[in-house]
């Protein structure tokens, strides 16, 4: 058996920043540190931080007054910030800067009296946070297109969830262009989403099966699985070696492996060690060197 290992894979800059924020908050303020929603969508990462004193909650109401809270990388609606302030919580914002960019775009184009369409997956935490910024219409590419009943000449700006399929998003944008004549499209898919999808496309053309390492609630991991499947080969989303069914590999000699932007590298190595392939070939795609700054409240003056 041979494994073709996709690069880039794993943690993006926004995830690194979010995890670092929780760890630095624990170091500076001591446990417990409450985390509003899973800091990133991976149970291994969440459990590791919880073992150090983080407590994950879904509602601000579940946090005791005057506590320290980290808002997750996916972003949150303004109402959550207001509720936290009303309870006297110290807020440390771990929202990915690329998600914050989408929020700022929503405010900008709404102030210009442009109607907003968000392409995203209903119920995802990032979508909840973005839709809370301004009034906007959601188009979910997993379902039949539900276009708003607006005049064809209405000025429309299209925003997107950052972790969607590149190809599906392009299809949605084309559909919107066919309905409205004045459309501004923002390029909101994040670099990590795009790079990982392009890398697995290269590998999927040459392998017989793909394993995507990551959590089932991770949007970008699910999109990687779908991209691989679009090449007509089996693709499975697993988080640990225990989820592998060895019958998948009957008569399979060449396997592609990648991981989503919220998956730690240790899980990838665990899977490769479990497979024990005769050869591992690293396939290099786009080079990534993105870094994000940390919130100033985590540092002492002068640091």
List the helices and strands and how they pair.
Layout: E1 2-7, H1 13-29, E2 33-36, H2 43-51, E3 54-57, E4 68-71, H3 78-86, E5 90-93, H4 97-111, E6 115-119, H5 125-131, E7 137-139, E8 155-160, H6 166-179, E9 182-185, H7 191-204, E10 209-213, H8 219-229, E11 235-238, E12 254-259, H9 265-275, E13 279-284
Parallel strand pairs: 1-12, 1-13, 2-3, 2-4, 4-5, 6-7, 6-8, 8-9, 10-11, 10-12
Helix pairs in contact: 7-8
Please tell me about this protein's structure.
The chain is an alpha/beta fold. It has 3 domains: 2-11 and 191-284, 3-Layer(aba) Sandwich (Cobalt-precorrin-4 Transmethylase, domain 1), CATH 3.40.1010; 13-96, Rossmann fold, CATH 3.40.50.11270; 98-185, 3-Layer(aba) Sandwich (Cobalt-precorrin-4 Transmethylase, domain 1), CATH 3.40.1010. The protein has helices at 13-29, 43-51, 78-86, 97-111, 125-131, 166-179, 191-204, 219-229, 265-275; strands at residues 2-7, 33-36, 54-57, 68-71, 90-93, 115-119, 137-139, 155-160, 182-185, 209-213, 235-238, 254-259, 279-284. A 5-stranded parallel sheet has the order 11-10-12-1-13. Strands 3-2-4-5 form a 4-stranded parallel sheet, with helices on both faces. A 4-stranded parallel sheet has the order 7-6-8-9, with helices on both faces. α8 (219-229) links the parallel β10 and β11. α7 runs parallel beside α8 (219-229). The chain is flat, with a radius of gyration of 20 Å.
């Amino acid at each position: 058996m041979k494994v073709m290992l996709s690069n880039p894979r794993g943690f993006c800059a926004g995830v690194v920043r979010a995890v670092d924020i929780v760890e630095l908050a624990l170091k500076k303020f001591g446990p417990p540190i409450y985390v509003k929603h899973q800091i990133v969508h991976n149970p291994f990462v969440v459990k590791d931080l919880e073992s150090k004193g983080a407590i994950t909650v879904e509602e601000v109401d579940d946090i005791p007054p005057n506590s320290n809270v980290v808002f997750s990388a996916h972003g949150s609606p303004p109402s959550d910030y207001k509720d936290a302030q009303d309870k006297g919580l110290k807020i440390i914002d771990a929202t990915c800067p690329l998600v914050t960019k989408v929020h700022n775009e929503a405010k900008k184009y709404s102030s210009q009296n442009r109607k907003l369409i968000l392409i995203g997956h209903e119920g995802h935490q990032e979508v909840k946070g973005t839709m809370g910024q301004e009034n906007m219409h959601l188009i979910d590419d997993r379902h039949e297109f539900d276009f708003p009943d607006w005049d064809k000449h209405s000025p429309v700006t299209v925003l997107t969830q950052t972790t969607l399929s590149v190809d599906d998003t392009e299809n949605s944008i084309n559909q919107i262009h066919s309905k409205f004549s004045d459309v501004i499209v923002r390029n909101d898919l994040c670099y990590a989403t795009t790079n990982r999808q392009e890398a697995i496309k290269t590998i999927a053309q040459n392998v017989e099966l793909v394993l995507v390492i990551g959590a089932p609630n991770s949007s970008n991991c699910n999109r990687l699985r779908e991209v691989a499947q679009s090449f007509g080969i089996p693709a499975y989303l697993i988080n640990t070696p225990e989820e592998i069914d060895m019958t998948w590999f009957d008569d399979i000699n060449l396997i592609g492996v990648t991981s989503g932007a919220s998956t730690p590298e240790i899980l990838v190595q665990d899977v490769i060690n479990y497979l024990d392939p005769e050869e591992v070939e690293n396939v290099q795609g786009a080079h990534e060197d993105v870094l994000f700054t940390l919130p100033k409240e985590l540092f002492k003056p002068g640091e």
